[in-house]
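Example record

One chain of 123 residues, shown exactly as stored in the release files.
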Amino acid sequence: MATHNDFGKQAEDVAAEYLQKNGYKILVRNFRFQKAEIDIIAEKDNLIIIAEVKARSTDAFMLPQEAVTKTKIKSIVAAANHYLEKFNKDQEVRFDIISVLPDEKKNLIIEHITDAFEAFDAN
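Predicted structure tokens for this chain:
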């Protein structure tokens, strides 16, 4: 497996751990629908949280959250809709982005952007 894939997996693990420590219940990780994937689906305060984890080894070119394009949002929303229907969930949904970047000492810094986008942002 390529090093960037290892870093991406590590970032998802750190993000899931962060969410759990902050009172979120992880429902599913790496939920797939067609070509789309949702990194983490969690629940907190009767909300379904769809979390996209974005990691970069540096922010020299762009912040991790800037990599969440309209196309990516469309695929996340489609996968989220499928999840809600498949598991008969009727709770309100929130879309978050969790950005993971290493600092100068290689410690991973997490930025949790709640309500980062809405389903209609995909249009």
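Notes: Residues 3-122 form a domain with the Trna Endonuclease; Chain: A, domain 1 fold (CATH 3.40.1350.10).
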